[in-house]
Amino acid sequence: MRKNNWLALCYHTLFVLFIVAPLLVVIAVSFTGKGYISMPTTGLSLRWFRAIADAPDIIDAFWLSLRLGLASATVAVLFAVPSALALTRYRFPGRGALSAFFLSPLMIPNVVLGVAFLRFFTTVGMSGSFFWLTLTHVTVIFPYALRLTLAAATGLDCDAERAALSLGAKRFTTFRRVILPMILPGVAAGWMLAFIQSFDELTMTVFVATPGTTTLPVAMYNQIAQTIDPLVASVSTVLIAGTAILMIVMDRIVGLDRVLIGKN
Known about the structure:
Blueprint (H helix, E strand, L loop, with lengths): L5 H25 L16 H7 L2 H34 L5 H9 L6 H15 L5 H24 L5 H8 L4 H30 L4 H4 L7 H11 L4 H23 L2 H6 L3
């Protein structure tokens, strides 16, 4: 097996440092004790982590973003699975056009979608609802769930399905016991990517969010626009730590290689 030489290792190290450096800066700023954004040159402090507990708007926005991400990612996957199976298993006129239509939100800037949704909701009087906010997020994240589910469903061996049907299994039982386990890594990866996209969505959400449906990214954006304190940095550090813990737990339970790239 050929190993990388020292030059390639140096390049990879610099590349990883370039990617991780902004996160390290955010983490370092969150431990400052000053009332403005500054590197912790005078000692470490947990002042701004304690300040999170005194910011109910940030806490409420976090729980709203969590519920919104769970709901929108789940709905997106529920639509993505039958769509992917239909696109990969059946040949019908307009299949390519239908696939392009499903993936079209990827080609539209989120700011354009935000303006369009704002105009639509204002016209019909539907703004300010968690349901409609979930619908907008499903529209944006559905292509991400569909792409990974399509990748898992493409080239799916149909022999096991035919065998189950020939032995008398019903279609739903065949799907639940045979097809779904075979495409589960792609479905799980699509759900996870859709959840991340929903939880992190700002550009479109800032147009359709209301005081009653303010997500965490919108609340952090408002915080940055109004103040210069490092509260946002401490919230970001908590999210980074939570994401790292979640990835470790997923790796221990199911294995990240199986979820992300479908390895057995």
